[in-house]
Amino acid sequence: MEVYIEPIRFAFLFFPLIAFLLTLPFLIIQYHKYGGIPIWRSAIFYTFILYLISAFFLVIMPLPTREDVLLMPDKIPQLIPFHFILDIMNNISFDSIISFFKSPVIYTLLFNLALTLPFGIYLRYYFEKRWYQVLLWTFGLSLFFEITQLTGIYGIYPKAYRLFDVDDLIINTLGGMIGYFITPVFQLFLPSRKQIDEKSYEKGKNVSIYRRLTAFLIDGFFVSLIFIIITIFFGSRVDIKLLFITVLVFYCFLFVLLTNGYTIGKYMVRIRLSSSKHPSLLFIAFHQLLLYGFILPSPIYISQLLSINSSGILEKSRILLIIFNVFMFIYFMIQFCLSLFIKGKKFWYEKLTRTNNISTIADNISFDKSI
Predict the structure, then answer these.
(1) Cα(47)–Cα(126) distance, rounded to whole angstroms?
(2) Distance between CA atoms of 295 and 252, rounded to whole angstroms?
(3) pLDDT at residue 342, as a whole number
(4) Where would I find the H helices in the chain?
(5) Which of helix, strand or coil describes residue 273?
(6) Phi (first) and psi of residue 78, to 5 degrees
(7) With contact defined as beta carbons under 8 Å apart, do 69 and 157 qualify?
């Protein structure tokens, strides 16, 4: 039993890293398609990823050393279909149920069935695949596992340290099909894919702080990317600080005004900056000026002001500016923290400029069967 528990334990340790790497792409896809992410969809996505990681580690672990693999006899692939039936007939005692199930042949067979059974459930329940699609997808997953073993994890090892067995392909595929046929039992207690999609769409009509934060991270990536590209070609000819300010002004001010409230990040998560005041573009520009010109750079301003030596009126002005920037940034952070728990919480600069991030999810959204 320890041979199965150890890979699963390792999968749980490895899972946070994989989840972290996949979270932003997952958020972007979901927000762009539906505008919202119910907890149930997140639970399905992350448990599915955890399952795949666990299944992969169960196939490749325990990992031997390269030296041990070199000393192993060559693993000759087993290419005779249904050879496991002959193994059962020749090597298993039928004297008792206990001795039957304790046989290595039987519990290996049961393990291979159980390995892909959840895969069949996920494919039918969430992805709404038909039986022949589950058959092909499960066979493909099993083939991936077997090729991984046959190639010594794609060349990491000098030769295969586990046996390629055509019976594993058959049994794994059967496991996926069993998962497909027992899925209706789980569907009695779980929400349907259509219900999950409808819930996502309902949430998508409102713009959450997490959706806005996702857009902000995407925009930060593109600002950095544009800055790096320009720096590579023109960095030696211009001042770096001036170049960064120019990129920021173009992306956060001119680009937003030209697209009537969009940035690349906002477009990808289906939101748009809008103002109820007229002319709206003027107040959108004022919003961007407050956020990117004063609030977010406040720590930089504070650092610069603290490094200045002055006296008299200039010293008093410097202290007042420091206090003002500290207060403005702390107040912004307090509002940000509150918005994580209070839906629809507006920041002070949004109230001042009468601006709001509105959802652009269409009323006639069509649901598909992808993640």
Answers:
(1) 12
(2) 14
(3) 86
(4) 2-33, 39-60, 66-71, 83-91, 97-101, 104-125, 131-150, 152-155, 166-187, 193-204, 209-234, 240-249, 255-258, 264-268, 280-288, 298-306, 313-339, 348-353
(5) strand
(6) -95, 105
(7) yes
What is residue 78's DSSP assignment? B
Residues whose CB falls within 8 Å of the CB of residue 89, separated by 6 or more in sequence, listed in order: none
Q: What is the pLDDT of residue 185?
A: 94
Please state the rounded mean pLDDT for residues 289-297: 93
First-to-last alpha carbon distance for the chain, in angstroms, is: 34
Q: Give the tens place of pLDDT for each residue, 52-62.
A: 999 999 999 88
CA atoms within 13 Å, Cβ hemisphere of 29: 13
What's the pLDDT tens digit per position in 9-32?
889 898 999 999 999 999 999 999
Residue 199 tokens, joined: 């819930």
CA 297, CA 302: separation in Å to the nearest integer? 9
Closest CA to 280 of 358, 355, 360, 347: 355
Helix axis angle, 83-91 to 166-187, nearest 10°: 90
Tokens of 55: 């299944």
The band of 86, judged by pLDDT with boundaries at 50, 70 and 90, is confident
- Name the residue with tokens 């008093």: 316
Distance CA 73, CA 141 (A): 27
* Rounded distance between C-alpha atoms, residue 179 and residue 265, angstroms: 39
Quote the mean pLDDT of the chain: 88
* Total-model pTM: 0.85
Query: Vertex 18, ends 13 and 19: CA angle to 5°?
Result: 95
Q: How confident is the model at residue 92 (pLDDT cuts 50, 70, 90)?
A: low
Question: Are the CB atoms for 163 and 336 separated by under 8 Å?
Answer: no
Question: Beta 271-275 vs 355-359: how paired, if at all?
Answer: antiparallel
Across 175-179, 289-293, 307-311, least confident range: 307-311
d(CA 205, CA 321): 40
